[in-house]
Structures are given as C-alpha cells and as structure tokens.
Amino acid sequence: MRWLFPGKTIRIEAPCLDCGEPMSIELRDEEILSIDPPTMVGYTRSPVGGAADTRPFR
Description:
Elements: E1 9-15, E2 22-28, E3 31-36
Antiparallel strand pairs: 1-2, 2-3
C-alpha cells in the first residue's frame, strides 16, 4: 500500500471469505501496526517474495 499512500496509516476491515468473521489490519508503509485476529494470513495470485524455491509457503 505504500506506493498508493506513502506515509499514511491505512486500515482495512473485511469479513473472512471462509467463515464470515470480521478481520482488520492497520499498516503504514511496510509496517503492520495492528492485526485482528492475530492468526490472519494473506494470499496473492501474483508471484511475490523472491524465487519460488525460497518462498515460505507455496
């Protein structure tokens, strides 16, 4: 999000697409300020995180 809102605090609230429970994350640049629930995980359709063989989750 930093390329869209550099230096700004962003809060995203959305329901879990699996169970419908509320989720929220607050971040600024590359820093996560708060996250609820703390066990939240993310998914991206695009390859990110370097080489495929060194990514923590495939």
